[in-house]
Amino acid sequence: MSITLMAYRFQVVLMVFWASSAMAEVGEMMYWTSKRGIARNGSEWIVEADLRRPGSIAIDEIREVIYWTHRQWVYTDPPMIYRSNLDGSHLEVFSRVDGSGLVHIGIDSWDRKIYYTGKIDGGDYTDSSFGGFDLDTWKNETQPYGVRIAWDPYGAVVDPLKKKLYFMDAYGLMSLDIEYIGYTTDGSSVPESLEGPLEVYPLEDMKGYRDRGRRKGIFDLEMDVDNGVIYWSGENGIGKSRLADGKEGISLFMEVPARQIAVDPSHEDFYWAKDGEIYRSTFEGSSSELVIDISGFRDEMSGYDMSGYDISNIVDMAAYKGRIYWSDLAGTLHSCDRDGKDLRALFAPVVRRPSGIFADSERGRILWGDRLSGSVFEADLDGSEMRIITSESLDVSDVLSTGDRLYWCDNAKGEIWSSNLDGSGAEPVIRPGTSLPTLGNWPPMTIAYDSVGERVCWQGEEIYCADPDGSNVDLLVSGGGSVFYDIAVDGQQASIYWSDQKGLYRMLLGGGGKETLYRAPYQHGFSVWDRIPIALSLDQVYWFTWDWHPLAYGPWVDLHWMDKDDKSARFTRERLHRGQSKEHPESIAFYLPAGTAVHHLSEPSESALHRNYPNPFNGETRIPYTVSRDGPVSLTIYNALGQPVASLADGMHSRGAYEAVWDTEGHESLASGIYPARLVAGDVVRMRKLTLLR
Question: Is residue 623 within 8 Å of 614, Cβ to Cβ?
Fold first, then answer.
C-alpha cells in the first residue's frame, strides 16, 4: 500500500475579469449562465444560446417559402422576420421591424407583399401598428403607424382579391383596407383615424362568442382565398363567414374550443388544434379525426405545467399542399404530412436557455440544464464536445453531480430527478404529493449537495434537504413570504447559504445561527436586480448582482465575494461590465481541477476534512484536509466493520493545507464498498465516506 503526504504553501492569486482583478483560488475558473448562453470567467462566451423563437407563420404559396416571426416577449432585441424553404433549408433573416412589437404576419402572394400587426413600443395597451414589406426586394415600403383600438391587434390574414387585411381583438373581427397601410415615409398620407377604412364585426354579431354578456375573445384567423371564406377560432367554437368583407353568412362552423386553425384548399382540409392535439376536418365540418398529439410541452416563461389552464402548446399553424406547419412553445418549427406522419423539425435550436451551471471537477466537465428544451447538457471546460445527457424533463432549472449520480430540478413538474452519469436510469426522487405534501407556489429551482452529510438540498418556496434517494425530507428554511432564488451548501462547515430579492444569508445545516451576509442596497436611484446567484469556493462565497439605474445605458454586472470564515471582513465587489438584459447572470459555479493542490487565500481558521477526488474511485484517491493550529494529526481509513485499514497521517503538523493519497492498487483484500475516513486534529474530529469500486 502506497501512502503519500503532501503539504502546500498559502498563495494569493489574481483572476482577471475584463480589465479588472478579483481574488480566487489557484486553477479555479468561474462559469455563469444567462439567456445569452454560458460565459467562462468574466467575458468569454463559450456557449451561445439560440434565442430565436418562431411565433406567427405564413406561407408564400407562389415561391413556396415559409416566413415566421421571432416572438419578441422572450427577450428585448428588435422583432425579426425569418424565412426559409418549406423543408427548413436556406434559413435567413428577412427583415427587422423597428419600433413595433411584432405579433402576426399575413402574405399576399399575388402582389408580393407581407403585412404585420403589432404594438407600438412605448405606447399604452391601445396603441397598435400595421406595416408591410415587399417580399422580393425586402424593401420596407410602409412604415408602422399608430391606431387607437380597444385591445392589441392579434392575427393577420390578407384577402388579395378585395385588398383587405383582417385581424382581431377582444371585441371582434376587424378588416382594414390595405391601401391605408401603405403611405409615404414622411407620414404625409397617414389618416387621422381608421374610422373610415376600419370595419368592426362585434362579437355579439358573431354567433357563439358571447357567454352571459361576457366577451370570450378570438384566438386565430384563417382564410380560404379560393372560396372566399374567413374562419376564426374561439373558446366557444370555430366561426366562419362566406362573405369575407361583410356580416352576412356568419355562422358557427364547429362547436369545439379550438385555439389554432389552418386551411389547405388543395386537399379541402380544415385543421384545428387545442392543447397540442391537431385535428383534421372537412370543409363542411362534418367529421374530425386526430392527426397528431404533440402535448407535453409547457409555457416556458412561467415554468409551470399549463396543461390544466386551456393554453395551447401550439403558437401558430398553417397548411399547404398536404402538409401541416406549426410553431410551438418550446421554440421549434415543425412540419408533418396530413396524416401526422413524416414529422420534421424545420427549425430546432439545441441550446436555448442555459440554467443551473455545475462544474464537475472529478471528470473535468461542466453540466447545465436548459429551461426551454428540458434537457441536461454536458461539455468540456471550453464548451466543446457538447452532448445532451438526458431530456426526460420539461424544464431543467439546475443540475449537480455527486460523483456517481446526476440530480436536476424539473421546474415545470415541481420534481427533482436523478440518473446515472450517462443519463440512464432517470427517475424522479422527489415528487409533490408523495415525498412532499404539496408543490407550493414556487417549484424547485436550484439544488445543492452536502458532500459530508451526503444529503441533497433544494430551494423552492422553502428550502428542504433529503437523502439522495428522496427519503427523510427535512424542512430547513421556511419562506415566510420571501421568494428564494439560489442556495449553496458548505458540507465542511455544515452551513447552507441562500439568497432572496433582498440579500444573502447563511445558517447551520442543523438549524440556527442565521446570519445576514449581504443586503441589496438602493441608493441614488440605483436598484439591484432581485435574483442573486451564489456559489462557494474553498474559502469564499461569491455572488452576482445586476445594478440598474433609469438614466444609465444598460445595467452593470457586479461580482461580489467575501471570506467565509472572517465574518468581520467586508465583502469585495468587482464591476465586470455593462451588460444587456439577456446577459443577466442566473447561475454561477467554480471549477477546481482534480489533482490541483489545495490552496487558500488565507490561513485556515478551522481543521477540516475535504471531499476526496475522485469519488467513487478505483485504485487511487486524493484526500485534502486543513489544520488550523500546530499539533498532532491523524488521518485513518476504516472498513465497514470499523477496523482500520490504512493510516495516511500520524504525527505533528504545522498549520496549513495538506493532501493525502490513498493507493489501493495491489490490495485485493479491499473489496468494493464504503470506507470511512477519520481526521483527528487536536480536539477536532471530522469524518467522510470514501467509495471504492473494484
Answer: no
Q: Grid cell 459555479 — which residue?
A: 589
* C-beta separation of 495 from 488 below 8 A: no
Q: Of 42, 27, 39, 25, which Cα lies nearest the Cα of 563?
A: 25
Q: Return d(Cα 59, Cα 65) in angstroms, integer.
A: 6
DSSP strand pairing (2-8 vs 656-663)? antiparallel
Report the DSSP beta bridge partners of residue 527: 548
> Is the pTM here over 0.70, yes or no?
no
Q: How far apart are the first and last CA of the chain?
A: 16
C-alpha cell at 572: 469585495
Q: In what order do the strands lie in the sheet with 198-202?
A: 154-159, 164-169, 172-177, 198-202
Per-residue pLDDT tens over the stretch 18-51: 222 333 333 468 899 988 899 988 778 999 998 7
Concatenate the DSSP letters of all residues of 23-92 into one string.
E--TT-EEEEE-SSEEEETTTEEEEE-----EEEEEEETTTTEEEEEE-GGGSSSPPEEEEEETTS-S-E
Which cell numbers in the block locate residue 316?
A: 401558430
Return the C-alpha cell found at 329. 412553445
The residue count of the chain comes to 694
> Of the candidates 208, 231, 207, which has an alpha carbon nearest to the alpha carbon of residue 155?
231
Confirm if 626 and 604 have CB atoms less than 8 A apart. yes
DSSP per position, 163-177: TEEEEEETTEEEEEE
Q: Which amino acid is at 537?
A: S
In the block, residue with C-alpha cell 452593470: 556
Residue environment code for 142-154, b if the CB has 16+ CB neighbours within 10 A, otherwise e:
bbbbebebeebbb
SS3 22: strand
What's the DSSP call for residue 136? Answer: T
Residues 6 or more apart in contact with residue 201 via CB below 8 angstroms: 172, 173, 174, 175, 247, 250
Whole-number percent of the chain with pLDDT over 70 = 72
Dihedral sign computed on CA atoms, order 571, 572, 574, 575:
positive
SS3 191: coil
Question: Distance between CA atoms of 266 and 89, rounded to whole angstroms?
Answer: 24
415-420/405-410 β-pairing: antiparallel
d(CA 296, CA 389): 20
56-to-69, 104, 125, 329 alpha-carbon distances in Å: 5, 5, 20, 12
Question: Does 294 have pLDDT greater than 90?
Answer: no
Q: Which residues touch 153 (CB under 8 Å, ≥6 apart)?
A: 103, 104, 117, 118, 128, 130, 167, 168, 169, 174
Q: Give the 3-state secondary structure of residue 283.
A: coil
Q: Report whether pLDDT(370) > 80.
A: yes
* pLDDT band, very low/low/confident/very high, at 514 (cuts 50, 70, 90): confident
Question: 442 near 487, Cβ under 8 Å?
Answer: no
Tens of pLDDT, residues 263-291: 999 999 999 998 788 999 998 887 889 99
At residue 311, the pLDDT reads: 45
The predicted-structure confidence for 96-145, as pLDDT tens digits, reads as follows 776 556 778 899 998 888 888 876 554 444 556 777 888 887 655 444 44
C-alpha cell at 276: 397540442
